[in-house]
Amino acid sequence: xxxxxxxxxxxxxxxxxGAWLACLMAAVVLLAATxxxxxxxxxxATTRQLPIYCVQRDQKLLSISFDAAWGxxxxxxxxxxxxxxxxxxxxxxxGDWVEKYPESVKALADAGHEIxxxxxxxxHYPQLSVDEIIxxxxxxxxxIEEVTGVRPTxxxxxxxxxxxxxxSAVRSIDMEPIQWDVDSLDWKDISAGEIxxxxxxxxxPGSIVLFHxxxxxxxxxxxxxxxxxxxxxxTFVPISQLILCDPYTIDHTGRQLPAx
Length: 260
Fold this sequence. Notes:
About 50% of the residues lie in helices and about 15% in strands. The protein is built from 9 helices and 11 strands. Helix 2 (about 75-85) packs parallel to helix 8 (about 220-230) and helix 7 (about 190-200) runs parallel beside helix 8 (about 220-230).
């Protein structure tokens, strides 16, 4: 009798355990489902559109570039220094700068340097619509082409500021967005020695170096940079000759790679 009276209690306990196990299984399934989705989201995040920061190159090739948006006091001096070392560079110029200094744009082109797009008014592209970005790019391209006879194919986005929309807009008109992997920091007015050390210590094959045409100590630093890198066996080429043609891929660091 005592055993029979205890049986319902045992059955009740088993039911409680069953319910508890069912809840536990449901939690496990829910956790598994939750853990399944983040890798998919992470994979999608890696598809963010990137400009070209540098290029995979086996040879010791690199490009130096100058952004020209405001001042013009050093442009001819830079042309002379680059000519002394027989180096061709890429100059990214703002449309407004072209209007102010067309003679400098022509002098750069006549010296064999690339003249590429740095926007028309140096606006923050993520704040513009796709149509506004395209209109801005074409306005700058028109001004450069009028002076040089050559329409730009590359653009450096103002402030190095971009989002997926900006990059898509650039590529929709068959232009390529270009960043840099070596920043001289000349825009901070650091000393010529610091500029030289930064650049020569960070350069690697396929690097793109950022300078500015009106930075305080760039003309002073440039000769030692060019001489050092030439002695190390580097060859300087304009960016259009450094980057790869299709098909290519860009990894998560912005390095352009051959697709196969």
